[in-house]
Write a structure and sequence with these properties.
Blueprint: E1 11-16, H1 21-36, E2 45-50, H2 55-70, H3 78-86, E3 88-92, H4 101-108, E4 114-119, H5 126-135, E5 144-147, H6 155-166, E6 174-176, H7 184-194, E7 208-216, H8 225-229, H9 232-250, H10 259-272, E8 282-288, H11 296-300, E9 310-315, E10 327-332, E11 339-346, E12 365-371, E13 375-383, E14 392-400, H12 401-404, H13 415-425, H14 434-453, E15 459-462, H15 469-476
Parallel strand pairs: 1-2, 1-4, 2-3, 4-5, 5-6, 7-10, 8-15
Antiparallel strand pairs: 7-11, 8-9, 9-10, 11-12, 12-13, 13-14
Helix pairs in contact: 1-2, 1-13, 6-14, 9-10, 9-14, 10-14
Bound molecules: NADP nicotinamide-adenine-dinucleotide phosphate.
Length: about 475
């Protein structure tokens, strides 16, 4: 199978923070891969903007070194690499003062290409950079702006940021990245739901017992402690990634696969989330060190910190489709395995016709795996092969993409590859709209406020476990249990 490559118009992409971790590790390798696949460049330019004194050649050397680390050797063809490096340029500027902006303007002024400004910098620079882009004359009507999370710290700050950006950009020009939405499996979820007649009739509270959404990491916060300790699992993961996944599972079919039609439906879900009844539906945790490894406080370098490195929340959606079907969300660091998945657990067969000796039936589970091994499996109960009478067993119908598609020679593009190309094509479907971000914060704010005022801090859990005991209880008291955290 050959991946279809849709050509894009030439562009000028200015990456503020082009020397930083995100740009070097994700964004620039993604652009390089698109070029190798024949999509972007060579008529386009990528201009990095940051404070350090590098010059274009210094920046190119830095990017070359990063590509050698982050791109597979099979893709590092010397000719393509030279071509890519040739498209790079560098402007030294400081977002916080006037230096360098005239130089950026001069780089852009004679170009007819579509412009993208990608803000891969700390969020407090989003507004100053946007203002200086406007005052330095860098904006055209076709300009697009890309911003990375965190999009605010709470509802008030998110609204303030949205309003600041709205004084300079139209909403149709703003692309708020949630890289989870760029994953192949996440989009496949929409194809699965809306391009097959099979699931939609049973995609509701009558047939779905509950849904579990898990984003678990094995790593701790070391190296990112200063940032993480100001945020915690609820702000860093729940408010954006997990709620966005929940929206895609729970939303009604949009009338068309168009940006605003999809985002309207996601927004309705966010606005239907029931406020949490009490503290019992939220469990926050913080990891303990084991085997001489540091605990959270040490990793974060923040003595006495009450920031949570784990959160589990039972969410209910107050609408006709989902009334009575809980969604259990959990995310955390230093957990047993690195795994991100959505599991739709269907109700069990209403009555078993088989003798007890056959073994019980088990609910069907549709598991959508985001990482590792992106793919979808459907767990079915079948007869165990062989003689010896009727014995039931569970098997997965496996659609692991690497196996199913990779075996046919198709490389699965990474999330940033897709998202950057969507920006260039002007497709906002996979990007969060201002009202979505605000609705998510509105629901999250009381959870954070309750945690801040609670007499007790987060529950302690062992590193590399499945999280605090209380998170297990969150499910057990409903007669359910979390799926095992297995990579
Ligand atoms: P980083 O490694 O600290 O890089 C920050 C970049 O901003 C550097 O290139 C830095 O270069 C530049 N910069 C800092 N102050 C500046 C100023 N006053 N004017 C111009 N440039 C300035 O940060 P990062 O990890 O790449 O993250 C960038 C953004 O993406 C943040 O908002 C972060 O929350 C978000 N994000 C990151 C990741 C990730 O995996 N890293 C994931 C999701 C979201 P100079 O020092 O040379 O100026």
């Amino acid at each position: 199978m050959v991946a279809r490559v849709i050509p894009v118009v030439p562009f000028d992409l200015v990456v503020f923070g082009g020397t930083g971790d995100l740009a070097q590790r994700k964004l620039l390798p993604a652009l390089f891969r698109r070029m190798v696949d024949g999509q972007a460049l060579p008529d386009s330019r990528i201009i990095a903007a940051a404070r350090r004194d590098l010059g274009a050649d210094g920046f190119r050397r830095r990017v070359e070194a990063a590509l050698r680390v982050h791109v597979g050797p099979e893709q590092l063809d010397p000719d393509r690499l030279a071509e890519f490096l040739c498209a790079l340029d560098y402007v030294r500027l400081d977002a916080a003062d006037e230096d360098g902006w005239a130089a950026l303007f001069h780089r852009l002024k004679d170009s007819e290409r579509m412009r993208v400004f990608y803000l891969s910098v700390a969020p407090q620079l989003f507004a100053p950079i946007s203002e200086r882009l406007a005052t330095s004359g860098c904006l055209t009507p076709d300009t697009r702006l890309v911003v990375e999370k965190p999009l605010g710290h709470d509802f008030a700050s998110a609204r303030k940021l949205n309003r600041q950006l709205a004084t300079i950009f139209d909403e149709r020009q703003i692309y708020r990245i949630d890289h989870f939405l760029g994953k192949e499996t996440v989009q496949n979820l929409m194809a699965l739901r809306f391009a097959n007649a099979l699931f939609e009739p049973i995609w509701n509270a009558r047939h779905v017992d509950h849904v579990q959404i898990t984003v678990a990491e094995r790593v701790g916060v070391r190296g990112r402690g200063a940032y993480y300790d100001q945020n915690g699992a609820v702000r860093d993961m729940m408010q954006n990634h997990l709620l966005q996944l929940l929206c895609l599972i729970a939303m009604e079919p949009p009338a068309h696969f168009e940006p605003d039609a999809v985002r309207d439906e996601k927004l309705k879900v966010l606005r239907s989330l029931k406020p949490l009844d009490g503290p019992g539906d939220v469990v926050l945790g913080q990891y303990r060190g084991i085997n001489g490894e540091p605990d959270y406080v040490e990793d974060a370098g923040s003595p006495g910190s009450r920031t949570e490195s784990f959160a589990a929340i039972k969410v209910e959606i107050a609408n006709w489709r989902w009334n009575g079907t809980p969604f259990y969300l959990r995310t955390g660091k230093r957990l047993q395995a690195r795994v991100s998945e959505i599991a739709v657990v269907f109700k069990d067969a209403p009555h078993s016709i088989f003798p007890a000796s056959a073994g019980g039936t088990n609910p069907n589970v549709l598991a959508i795996r985001l990482q590792p091994d992106e793919g979808i499996t459907l767990r079915l109960t079948i007869k165990e092969p062989g003689p010896g009478g009727m014995r039931l067993c569970q098997v997965p119908l496996d659609m692991t993409f690497a196996k199913t598609l990779g075996a046919q020679g198709l490389r699965i593009p990474g999330a940033y590859e897709r998202l950057v190309m969507d920006v260039i094509r002007g497709d906002q479907t996979l990007f969060m709209r201002n009202d979505e971000v605000e609705a998510a914060w509105r629901w999250i704010d009381p959870i954070i406020a309750a945690a801040d005022t609670a007499p007790e801090g987060p529950r302690s859990y062992d590193s590399y476990s499945s999280g605090p005991e209380e998170a297990l209880m969150l499910m057990h008291r409903d007669g359910r249990r979390w799926r095992a955290l297995a990579a």
